[in-house]
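Subject: for your reference before the review

Hello V.,

The reviewers asked for a structural picture of the protein, and I figured it would be easier to keep everything in one thread rather than splitting it across files. Below is the amino acid sequence we used in the manuscript, unchanged from the supplementary table.
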Amino acid sequence: MICNYKEISASILAGEVDNNLEQIRDTIKARKQVLADLRATNMVIGTRVEFANVRPKYLVGMTGEVVSLNGRKVSVKLDEEHIYAANRYAIDGVLLAKPEILEIIA
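And here is what came back from the structure prediction:
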């Protein structure tokens, strides 16, 4: 049975699935990992990316290009206009990131 987001949220908030909250959490975590793995397999050196689900929030929207892939980490060379703002976290304009915080852009 497939429900929409509102039905799922309402069931959780109403306590209808209290006995299964850990399993729901684990299922969500596993699905997020599958999505991150898929995103990572679609990335190659030269892929254009945008930081999406990341903290600190001022990194959201910054763009760059994948310069290396190392297992579960991606090195992103930031576009010139973002290097100064991200200087606290970047080394020579390069940020190391998990694939799940990146969105592939055209």
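For the response letter, the relevant points are probably these. DSSP finds three helices and five strands in the chain. The first helix runs from residue 5 to 13.

Happy to draft the paragraph if you're swamped.

O.
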